[in-house]
Automatic annotation (TrEMBL):
GO terms for molecular function: DNA binding; DNA-binding transcription factor activity. The keyword Nucleotide-binding does not apply. Keywords: DNA-binding, Transcription, Transcription regulation. This is Transcriptional regulator, lysR family. GO terms for cellular component: cytosol. Belongs to the LysR transcriptional regulatory family. InterPro entries: HTH-type_LysR_regulators, LysR_HTH_N, LysR_subst-bd, WH-like_DNA-bd_sf, WH_DNA-bd_sf. PROSITE patterns: HTH_LYSR. Signal peptide: none annotated. It comes from the Bacteria. The lineage of its organism: Bacteria, Pseudomonadati, Pseudomonadota, Gammaproteobacteria, Enterobacterales. SUPFAM superfamilies: Periplasmic binding protein-like II (SSF53850), Winged helix' DNA-binding domain (SSF46785). Residues 8-60 form the HTH lysR-type domain. It comes from Erwinia billingiae (strain Eb661).
């Protein structure tokens, strides 16, 4: 636990809980002691940090500013601790990774296992977000780096490594299409389909395929949830269109089969390892990033064949 001034510790906990009593219970410190510390600083600043109401405490504008500064100080001090540990050769640290939901599959946990084996003293936090929130987390410093799908070009975002991820037809085991090395969408129209809907990123390319084929598809179900689409395909209710990331674990377990789509107008998705160039990474984050760059280059997705 890094050093943190008594006042800032009390202040941030009261701000979080909105109550001296609740902060007292959490910190195991008398509520009167917490109150005295905050009153002393309010007197020094000549302005209140909290509005005191019968229902609880609310931060004033000055309190909001101080809370923001305290959070940044805590974050910066944590990075300094990591750098000091690195100087001592301990190679310790904590890395914060923001990822899209699609990445939370076996292959990514295998990546992290390899990194952990090389750097066992580096811990990490994984947070699942959408692309927009990942970019904001990188810019604000709430995440060291992020893994995104088809990130939008931005001067505030740098792609460190990427892998092309194909779309394909997903079928249950024993299906007539199983075993093919590639297929065009119009060769699958005789089979019932489970169609992805917005806000899934799959919705755009699938809608384009439907339009190019005059909407002639046997639609048996529509879902905006990848887990549900996988389950419906397993139950042999229909076949689906998913990207390799969504289905790779089930293919490895031989529960489902993936046939790459070879339609020439269909673009693959780009899985990207991103960071904010304006922010300096800790040594721990830099080491993990380099490891992931290498592992990204080894992602083996089924290729597209014309």
């Amino acid at each position: 636990m890094f050093a943190f001034s008594k006042f800032l510790l009390y202040f941030t906990e009261v701000a979080r809980l909105g109550s001296f009593r609740k902060a007292s219970e959490t910190l195991h410190v008398a509520a009167s002691s917490i109150d005295r510390q905050i009153l002393r600083v309010e007197k020094e600043l000549a302005m209140p940090l909290f509005e005191r109401h019968p229902t609880g405490l609310r931060l004033t504008a000055a309190g909001e500013l101080l809370l923001h500064a305290a959070k940044n100080w805590k974050k910066d001090f944590s990075r300094v601790r990591e750098q000091l540990d690195d100087l001592r050769g301990l190679r310790r640290g904590h890395v914060r990774i923001a990822t899209i939901d699609a990445i939370n599959r076996h292959f990514f946990s295998s990546m992290l296992k390899k990194v952990h084996q090389d750097y066992p003293n580096i811990s990490f936090t994984l947070t699942t977000m959408n692309n927009i929130d990942i970019q904001q987390a990188l810019i604000s410093g709430d995440a060291d780096f992020g893994i995104m799908l088809n990130p939008q070009s931005s001067k505030e975002l740098m792609v460190q490594a990427f892998a092309e991820i194909n779309l394909g037809i997903v079928v249950p085991k024993g299906h007539p299409l199983e075993g093919r090395s590639g297929v065009r969408f119009n060769q699958c129209l005789e089979y019932p389909f489970i169609i992805p809907s917005a806000p899934l990123m799959l919705y755009g390319p699938v809608e384009a395929l439907l339009n190019n084929n005059g909407g002639m598809v046997k639609e048996v179900a529509v879902s905006n949830n990848i887990h549900m689409i996988r389950s419906l395909i397993k139950e042999k209710i229909g076949i689906g269109i998913l990207c390799w990331l969504d289905i790779m674990d089930e293919v490895d377990r031989e529960e489902l089969a993936f046939i790459p789509l070879t339609d020439p107008q269909l673009k693959s998705f780009t899985l990207s390892l991103c960071l904010a160039p304006s922010r300096q990474l800790s040594l721990a984050a830099s080491m993990m990033l380099k490891q992931l760059e290498v592992l990204f280059s080894q992602i083996d997705a089924p290729g597209r064949e014309e």
